[in-house]
Amino acid sequence: MPAQAPTGSGPDRARGVEPPAPATDGFGVYLHIPFCARRCDYCAFATWTDRWHLVDAYLDAVRTELERAVDAGMPPATSVFVGGGTPSAVPAEALTRVLAAVPTAPGAEVTVECNPDTVTDELVAAYVAAGVNRLSIGVQSMVPHVLAALGRTHGPASVERAVATAARHGVAEVNLDLIYGAVGESLGDWAATLDAAMALGPTHVSAYALTVEAGTPLAADPDRHPDDDEQADKYLLADERLTAAGFDWYEISNWARPGSACRHNLLTWAQGDYRGFGCAAHSHVAGRRWWNVRTPDRYVEAVVAGASPEAAGEELDAERRRLEGLQLGLRTAAGVPADALDGQDRARFEGLVVVRGDRVVLTPAGRLLANEVALALR
User: Fold this and answer.
1) Domains present along the chain, CATH in parentheses
2) What is the pLDDT of residues 179-191, one digit of tens each?
3) Helices 55-71 and 296-304 sit at what angle, rounded to 10 degrees?
4) Is the pLDDT of residue 16 over 50?
């Protein structure tokens, strides 16, 4: 069973901080860059290590798909997120040419995911000149033997250099992505990672439990599978340490300094509209959800041929959208309307949810059982 929440931690602690407001009135753009130097053993994303010969053609195709969407009336983006893969591994000038094709609203949030080993002064300078104002750095751990267990090739010094480089070029927002639960990672190791990460002065921290995805090398090696109880302890420790350091929890795996929550992710969790470009990229507009073909080869072929790269899609009826909205909202600090759980269920989930005015919000212990609570939403 999951460990119990430490007294006085998480959202039950009175801090007078309002959760970030949902961002349903914005419009997001996601750009998928599927190239990686090495695939981590736990990764099930649409990424490839043997398609580097496609980089130029792929980025040209993404720009073409973008330009077609703009010509068809796509609105300016309030947030842009470049993910992967390893976006920072492709030439900066090539990536910024793609970014230049994205129409943005004033004050738009523009984020690029980075591997610490790829962050240089030249790269960040090019990003900033192109309007990038947020970097999400894939740290995972600040303990060398844990990084090795995760199959990562960088070390803590690379992370320190990457954060210092971002600061030197005036990047306003820096997110550090962490993963807990690798084989051999003690609670002390995880505490050391949290302390080292916070010492770098990020504005945002994401902490994800290592998950076993079908078809990955991790899935084929049960001896390396994470322990649920240990992961629960590590989650609660993260919430306790980050909250004490002045970070506000705002989604199950995300904490931010006041005003530094990721607007792109808030838009997604609020069921806002967004367009995804590139292979395997997903889109959602006006209740329709669709996704592109998975491989970069097929994606490039489709775009070059003047065809749509869409693989499949679905229309969401009103009831499904309502229920999905509740499930997404439950993950956030804004919670869900109090009547989404009846009195009997609220009593059953005592200690897992709290009522705040007309909203129900998960406690730290409740976040560990969010899927169970979500099944009772109505």
Assistant:
1) 10-268 (3.20.20.70), 326-378 (no CATH)
2) 999 999 999 999 9
3) 50
4) no
